[in-house]
Structures are given as structure tokens and as C-alpha cells.
Amino acid sequence: MSSLLPQQARVFAVLKWFISSIQGQYTSRNESTGSAKKYVVVAFESCACRGYGYWLANAARGGKTTLVVEHASRHPPITACRIENLENGVILTRHSAQKTSQRSNAKAKAKATSPENHTFKVTLTPPSHIYASPHVVEGKWHTTSKESHSGVAFHDVTSPKEEITVAPLEEQGEWESRKLWYGVAKGLRKGDFESAALFNGKTENKQMQRRSDESTGGMTWELKHFKHVEHDPVYTNSNSLCEDEHLGKLFKANPPTEDGYVYLGNGPIS
Questions:
Q1: What is the DSSP-derived secondary structure letter of residue 62?
Q2: Which of 221, 227, 223, 181 is nearest to 202 (CA)?
Q3: Dihedral of the alpha carbons of 172, 169, 77, 189, in degrees to the nearest 10
């Protein structure tokens, strides 16, 4: 998704990333625990926690890729994250909530053709100043998809996932997610579901007590790595660093403005 790619190629790269990310976020299987994960972002959206990790450099992606993720809001439930691969010049800041949308400098219309089998169809219409036919991509977001006219494969998420690397438990902070849920994960891996349920209950009760104490004291969960903004500057093209990325204004987006989360640049050093 580097800026060195042509405009159309960048649109396709973003769309491919977006579709590929859905399977891991909302429905995937953890082979080490034998458990299915559905709506995994809820772990951050309902739990006051943070997470840090990285994927080591390799030939396919180049440099080291780092992740900072943080619980941003409970009502509505929102998770904010930052992914960086500085060697390739790829930086992603996003938030995940109950509503999602594909934003690019081309019109994107997506239709979920069946909520039961996860099929989708996306039509990408180039801006009016580019003379090209619309591209139609369809398939199943949790497996594979293809470009309808050519039949060329578009995305494939059936290959084994590369686990993220995190710091040893003893080096993690109080609010890091792996530390908070360690007892639950350990119980699941050992097949000790009674223990997992016990730790799960303790963790959830502790979180509910925290929220009750915050409510009583008129306090809220304080964001450490992100700042909420009412108007996303990229979406509205306000002070955008890329003159060719009109986004919301280009295709008269509805709503015309969108809130967002700005990364404060204070995560672990990449």
C-alpha cells in the first residue's frame, strides 16, 4: 500500500487489506486452544486494556511491523490501533466499531449477499476523470474472493496465520490484554474449562467494578496512545497530506464528516 504504487493499485491494496482483516477480527479459530473466536474486537471494546506486539522482518513484508492497540470506548464499543512498517513506509491508524466502511478515493459499494455464508460483492467505480470500467469483486470474506470479469484471485485468507510476538508476561504492564486474560487462555490451552471460566468471571467482575468506581467518581478510562477527534481530517480532506486523496468530498460521502482517533506517537519504539 506504499505511495509508490499507482492510484488504482493503492485502492485495490486497501480493499484487499480491509477484506482480509475481517476474518481475523470477527471470526477465526485459535488452533492452540481449539476454540472459535467470534467478534474478537469485543475483548478490547468491553475491557479496559491495551496491547503491544510485532511481526519480525521477513522477505515478504520487509522490515519489522509493530502494533499498538487500545480500548477506546465502551459505549459505543470502539477499539483503536496503530500498525507501522517504517522500512516500507506503511502506517495504518484505524478504529474498529460496530459500523465499518471502506474509504478510498474511488467509490466503493459493498453488499453482503448472505449473512449466513459471509459472501460479499463490492463494486469499485473509478472517479469521473478516469476512463475505466467498474471493477467487481465477489466471494467469501472469511475464505477467498475473485475479480468477477477476469476470474483472477483477489484475496485468500485460508493460509495459516502468523502469530504476533509480545513481551514476556512478567514484562507486561497492568493493563495489557495478554496479562489480563492470561488465566483464561492458560485454562483453555490445558482443556481446563472450569479454571478458564473461573478466571474469566474474576476478570469480568474486576472490570465491572472498575467501571462502577469510575462512574461513581465521575471518571472515565483515560486513553494513553490515541486522541479522539470529532472530525477525521483525512476523511473530510481537511489538512490532508495527500492532495490526490479527497476521500469523503470526492464521492459526497454520507455522512459528510466522520469522527476518528489520532495516534499520539507514544507507543513502544519500532
A1: B
A2: 181
A3: 180
118 φ/ψ sector (left φ>0, alpha ψ -120 to 50, else beta): left
Alpha carbons 43 and 204: distance in angstroms, whole number: 10
pLDDT for 106-128, tens place per residue?
333 334 444 445 676 777 776 66
CA distance 32 to 41: 19
DSSP H or E segment with residue 156: strand 153-156
The C-alpha cell at 194 is: 472450569
Helix or strand holding residue 13 (H, E): helix 7-26
Question: For residues 161 and 209, what is the distance between their CA atoms, to the nearest angstrom?
Answer: 35
- Decide which of 210 and 30 is more confident: 210
Would you call 241 helix, strand, or coil by DSSP?
A: coil
* Largest pairwise CA distance in the chain: 62
Give the three-state DSSP class for 66. strand
Residue 114 DSSP label: E
Contact status, residue 33 vs residue 185, Cβ threshold 8 Å:
yes
Does the CA dihedral 195-197-202-204 come out positive or negative?
positive
Please report which confidence band the pLDDT of residue 225 belongs to, taking 50, 70 and 90 as the band edges. Answer: very high
